[in-house]
Amino acid sequence: MDIVSVLCILFGMSDATTILPPVDPVPSRRRAATRARICEAANQLFFEIGFAPVTMDHIAQAAEIRRSTLYQYFSEKSEILAAIAEDYTAKLRVVIASLPGPAPTRDEIACWVEEFARFVTSERAATELLVSLSHLPKAPAAAVAFGEALKAMMAERVTAFRDAGSPGAHQAQAKAIIVMDTLGWALCHHARTGGCELSKARLDVAADNLDRFVRGEM
Q1: Is-cis flag, bond preceding 100, omega within 30?
Q2: Pairwise CA distance, residues 3 & 176, whole Å
Q3: How many CA atoms within 13 Å lie on the side-chain side of 203?
Q4: What is the reported pTM?
């Protein structure tokens, strides 16, 4: 009796076909690496050219893979955008979680805005892509989902944002949108210019707006 048959008897298996070979982690790692390369290439193209003009052919060429290989991972570019947004949102969650709550002071807001600016500088392409797309009249679903996730994260940290999400709180909702829009564009400008004096002033104004909103004075 061979070793396989002995193992079958010991483990109550009817025959050798029920013994599965060990899973090889290498193909999974390679697939993950290829997927990441696709998202990185698409992210840069969307940032440099715009979401609408970019085609799947462009993405395959930039990622240095065959078009047929690209379609093994994503069926259309909107799926790639969704993957980019999901990855970015996960990273952003750490930044949002560092904002003291439920009512941060002006100094705490200033420190947080500085941290946010460093994050945006390191993630400039994805930030500008998602911020710009989320403001389109017909924003892609992934950009809309990103905006909703951002609102939810802020509501988890700060009471004023949570209250702004209440039904019928239209004035508070409008103020919350203005506060976050001002901050978002100021952060993008800061990353784009490398931190010029104007960008610093814009961040200060955004921090002031956030402080007034938190204190109910906006």
Answers
A1: no
A2: 69
A3: 24
A4: 0.84
Residue 15: strand, helix, or coil: coil
Give the Å distances, CA to CA, from 19 to 1, 2, 10, 15, 26: 16, 14, 12, 8, 21
Q: Do residues 38 and 59 touch, judged by C-beta distance below 8 A?
A: yes
- 60-116 per-position pLDDT tens digit: 999 999 999 999 999 999 999 999 999 999 999 999 999 999 999 999 999 999 999
* Cα gap 165→155, rounded to integer Å: 8
Confidence check: pLDDT of 118 > 70: yes
Helix 141-157 / helix 170-193 crossing angle, nearest 10 deg: 110
**Which residues, 6 or more positions from 112, have their beta carbon under 8 angstroms from its beta carbon?**
98, 99, 100, 104
Question: What is the distance between the alpha carbons of residues 145 and 156, in angstroms, rounded to a whole number?
Answer: 17
Other CB atoms within 10 A of residue 160 CB: 24
25 residue type, one letter? P
- Token look-up 């940032």 returns 47
Q: What is the pLDDT of residues 170-200, one digit of tens each?
A: 999 999 999 999 999 999 999 999 889 999 9
Q: Supply the DSSP symbol for 13.
A: -
| CA–CA dist 76, 61 (Å, integer) | 15
